[in-house]
From TrEMBL:
It holds the Pfam family Peptidase_M23. InterPro entries: Cell_wall_metabolism_enzyme, Dup_hybrid_motif, M23ase_b-sheet_dom. CDD domains: M23_peptidase. This is Peptidase family M23.
Length: 324
């Protein structure tokens, strides 16, 4: 038999019996049980869904996001530098080395120093993120290629100092001033439709469109080789620059030099015209290297910025505007 329990009632100044039945116990404990259940559910939700992070975890997440942003910026800068380097390589191989009679550097030389043993073992052992390791690799490749380009420029600079006379005789300027030039007509093209003859015919030079009477300049130092009239080229002048280089100027309105004259780069040698087989006033300009016609655009560098040079190349490659 369960013992009875009494408690003192201050209102009646008497001891009263306390009901200790099961229902009464449950009734008194229910609020505590309910609170405990709620706390338990919250704890389960945190563990199951990870909706709660500590201050330390929040700080780590912020640092990781910042690293990702910085890595993206770094990769963009690497790509920009790589693009600039590619432009310098193109100028080096197609222009500067051509000027000095040197061959373009081979691909194997350009790629030197970018292979070999695994220099990134320590990074890999330390569980460095793959994105960061990739950035290190790209940066190392870029530095190696820049070193090759630097050495190439140093080599060409030394050779240019020893070949100043050759550079002076290189046809390196556009023979019509930029401010007089209306546009570039047909460029160098082995198969171009002739607007007057109405048939396919190689175009072995570049057409510089300008008003009749516009001055024509010698593109380099040299000796006048020919001053004559041609049925196709009209009034024309040829200048021998030495080193196997000859420049030709055609469809002139007037010729202001004679055979045997020694001319300097930038000296006026005639005027733009439309003589011979011509659809309008322009200068047809050619460069011959050891007797073979070559694209004159490759020699335009003396008075053009890289952006202007690109624009001239783009226009010269168009065949939509034919003058002859």
């Amino acid at each position: 038999m369960a013992k009875e329990k009494y408690v003192f009632d201050p209102d009646t100044l008497m001891y009263v019996r306390v009901d200790t039945g099961f229902k009464q116990v449950i009734k008194r404990l229910f609020p505590y049980m309910l609170a405990g259940g709620v706390v338990g559910l919250m704890a389960f939700a945190v563990l199951a869904f990870g909706s709660y992070t500590t201050p330390k975890e929040k700080l780590q997440a912020q640092l990781i996001n910042k690293l990702k942003v910085n890595q993206k910026v770094l990769n963009e800068r690497i790509n920009e530098a790589s693009s600039t380097l590619q432009h310098l390589v193109a100028l080096d191989d197609s222009l500067y080395r051509t000027m000095l009679g040197e061959n373009a550097l081979s691909r194997s030389i350009r790629q030197a120093g970018t292979g070999g043993t695994n220099k990134y073992e320590n990074l890999e052992r330390n569980n460095t993120p793959e994105g960061i390791i990739k950035s290190f690799k790209e940066l190392d490749k870029l530095v190696a290629k820049m070193n090759v380009q630097e050495n190439s420029y140093e080599e060409l600079f030394k050779k240019s100092m020893a070949n100043m006379d050759r550079l002076q005789h290189l046809p390196a300027i556009i023979p019509v001033a930029n401010w007089d030039l209306k546009r570039i007509g047909s460029g160098f093209n082995p198969r171009r439709f002739h607007p007057i003859l109405n048939r396919w015919r190689p175009h072995k030079g570049i057409d510089l469109v300008a008003n009749t009477g516009t001055d024509i300049y010698a593109s380099a130092d040299g000796r006048v080789k020919s001053v004559r009239y041609s049925d196709s080229f009209g009034k024309m002048v040829k200048i021998d620059h030495g080193y196997g280089l000859v420049s030709l100027y055609a469809h002139m309105n007037s010729q202001k030099v004679k055979v045997g004259d020694h001319v300097k780069r930038g000296q006026v040698i005639g005027e733009v015209g439309s003589t011979g087989l011509s659809a309008g006033p322009h200068l047809h300009y050619e460069i011959h290297l050891h007797g073979v016609e070559v694209d004159p655009v490759k020699y335009f560098f003396k008075d053009l910025s890289p952006q202007e040079y690109k624009a001239v190349v783009a226009q010269a490659q168009s065949i939509d505007f034919c003058m002859e």
